[in-house]
Design goal:
A six-stranded mixed beta sheet has the order 5-4-3-2-1-16. A six-stranded mixed beta sheet has the order 8-9-10-11-14-15, with helices on one face. It is built from six helices and 16 strands. The longest helix has 19 residues. It has about 280 residues and is an alpha/beta fold. A hairpin with a 2-residue loop joins strand 8 and strand 9. The chain has one domain: 4-Layer Sandwich (Nitrilase/N-carbamoyl-D-aminoacid amidohydrolase).
Length: about 280
């Protein structure tokens, strides 16, 4: 791993308007690059939050014609940054979509894509019911991507509750982990900080968790509080509950330091049924 760098998490409040959301995220990405960030990360559902299966599928685009893909690729190239788009809703067929994360290299090329593995099928205490599996097709592997400073493992939101996936990513070489999210306000207040800090401590990785915030279509409420967490579990930067940017200086050498002090991450075998793809 090479030297220190600055990372940024972008926090947005996505509406049902695709072009508006692309513009909102793009402005914040430009601001983050202007502040010196070399790795910039956006939340789950960066360009659209729509409630309901029919409405989601009606607004989804196939990857080949999704306007956000070339827009963010071009922005990464223009700014010369690594750009992780937390997820886009990608139409796979008449009946299903993918919740797909993208990582663009500083030349605008696509370095990796990842389809969310664990579907958010839950009954939240505030009365909201979510059934992602009715709309989205689960992914089959979590990629690990070499960056100039170390290796980045990609996950999305509800994956956070499955620690075996993060253990497997760390054991396969990840130094940094993405957890782009649209956590509900209720579950966020209860579990967000605890789960993210636990994943950092368990793996000795930096954790980048860009989040959605505010009120959305159909009464959905997201928690905000985007976080950048160090490999010892300390919060390095935290957003509030409004759109914006958080930044932190990342020191890759601290990954090895944390792991040397508590090497538990390497003492068991990966248990996730789908091992990370390299």
């Amino acid at each position: 791993m090479s030297g220190a760098f600055k990372a940024a998490c972008i926090q947005v409040n996505a509406s049902t308007d695709l072009e508006e959301n692309i513009a909102q995220a793009s402005r914040l990405i430009v601001d983050a690059a202007g502040a010196g960030a070399k790795l910039i990360l956006t939340p789950e559902n960066t360009t659209m939050i729509v409630r309901g299966r029919e409405a989601t599928l009606a607004k989804a685009h196939p990857e080949a014609s999704h306007p956000a893909v070339p827009a963010f690729a071009a922005l990464a190239a223009k700014l010369g940054v690594w750009l992780s788009i937390g997820s886009l809703t990608i139409r796979l067929s008449e009946e299903a979509a993918a919740n797909r994360s993208y990582l663009f290299a500083p030349d605008g090329s696509l370095a990796a894509r990842y389809d969310k593995i664990h579907m958010f099928d839950v009954n939240v205490p505030d009365g909201q019911v979510y059934r992602e599996s009715a709309t989205f097709q689960r992914g089959e592997g979590a990629p690990i991507v070499p960056l100039p400073w170390g290796k980045l493992g990609l996950t999305i939101c509800y994956d956070l509750r499955f620690p075996q996936l993060y253990r497997a990513l760390a054991q396969a070489g990840a130094d940094f982990l993405t957890v782009p999210s649209a956590f509900t306000r209720v579950t966020g207040r209860a579990h967000w900080h605890t789960l993210l800090r636990a994943r950092a401590v368990e793996t000795g990785c930096y954790v980048f968790a860009a989040a959605q915030c505010g009120d959305h279509d159909g009464g959905r409420e997201t928690y905000g509080h985007s976080l950048i967490i160090g490999p010892w579990g300390e919060v390095l930067a935290e957003a509030d509950e409004a759109p914006g940017i958080i930044l932190a200086d990342i020191e890759p050498a601290r990954v090895a330091e944390a792991r040397s002090m508590v090497p538990a991450w390497q003492l068991d075998a990966p248990t996730e049924e789908v091992l990370p793809a390299t």
